[in-house]
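Q: I'm building a small set of examples for a reading group on sequence design. Run inverse folding on the following structure and report the sequence directly after it, with nothing in between.
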């Protein structure tokens, strides 16, 4: 007489459920930044431009990105808030000052991505542990 297997069927079925989530090629830098930091495409473009052109002013970025200065300022504020850009004040020879922006180096941004993703995963894991009747 054959024994009944009451264990949940997980191996093949579980792997099939995640096929759409895991792709052969990993996410691009833009996909990772937009997902983990909840930033928009134009903010990623600003970050990438800062990587290529450090110490840029808003006027310079506005010209390169072909975007209004106020929009560039908003993108820079978001990038600074997320830890992806830095601002330095430079004094002008004729008086006054200008702000120059630089991207957080890619090596630091990768670490920030990892830390943020790990913190999010820990939070989700805690929430999963709390799932139960009436927790919808």
């Amino acid at each position: 007489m054959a024994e009944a297997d009451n264990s949940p069927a997980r191996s093949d079925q579980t792997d099939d459920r995640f096929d759409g989530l895991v792709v052969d090629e990993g996410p691009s830098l833009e996909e990772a930044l937009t997902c983990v930091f909840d930033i928009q495409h134009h903010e990623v473009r600003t970050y990438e431009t800062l990587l290529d052109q450090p110490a840029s002013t808003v006027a310079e970025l506005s010209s390169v990105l072909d975007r209004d200065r106020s929009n560039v300022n908003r993108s820079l504020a978001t990038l600074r808030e997320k830890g992806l850009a830095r601002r330095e004040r430079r004094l002008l020879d004729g008086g006054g000052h200008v702000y120059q922006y630089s991207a957080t180096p890619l090596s630091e941004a990768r670490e920030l991505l990892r830390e943020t993703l790990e913190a999010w995963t820990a939070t989700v894991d805690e929430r999963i542990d709390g799932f139960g009747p009436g927790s919808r």
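The radius of gyration is 23 Å.
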